[in-house]
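Explain this protein:
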Amino acid sequence: MAFPAAPGKIGGMDFSAMIRANEANWDARVPIHVASRFYAEEPSAWFAPHEWDDLGDLAGRDVVHLQCHIGSETRALAERGARVTGLDLSAASLEAARAVPGITYVHGDVLAAVDALGPERFDVVYTGKGSLVFVPDLPLWAEQVAGLLRPGGFLYLVEFHPVLYTLGLIPTEDESLTLRDDYLGDRGPIRVDGTYTYTDGPPLSEATEYYEWRHGLGEVITALLGAGLRLDLLRETPEIPWKRWDGMVNTVGPWHRLPDDAPRIPLMYALRAVKP
């Protein structure tokens, strides 16, 4: 199935081949993720309690979940009574997501989301938890988000904190809290050759190459303000939905935090931005 292509260049750099590599990589991840214990959790388990408070009553509201992958969080939004549409770059991800009926899924690049989703506009745009690192152009992404919202609607973004990315998402041998990667994204794309995904399960047999782009909080917020949205909430929180270090303490479901004797650092953040 063809979908509208996003612009392929930023600052003279052609990133269309990188997007194609990411698409192939996510297609290859799907059978591993579908069979994993990681994604066997109930869909609502991927939401911290404060997320539901921030989102408010979703019953009867039109919600789009950008970069929805195999639809776990998408289903949780639908269970709250929302009319939900999921958008993803990976056709294989959407094929797996459609195994659970009742949700509309659209194949498309998030940087061309308005064209991919057509004339429909939404009360809520939901996205996050590892999505933004696959977005090369934040101002264009923010324009797409603003274009999808009805007046008075809002974006709710829940993401891994840039501080967590600096510590590295793959544990080191001694699992120390050491700055290893960039917080800011000024160096451009990061090429990764990842044999294993972030879930349990076997290694990838093909399409192991993918690309990421780091984004600091300032870059994210500036892009949203530049697209005409108004920020009305920003949270920094100490929990993540998997056990990143052996010493982490389980709180509820898949959620873990650092032990009490560890530094108090943000591991995730959430923001809400309203379209006037």
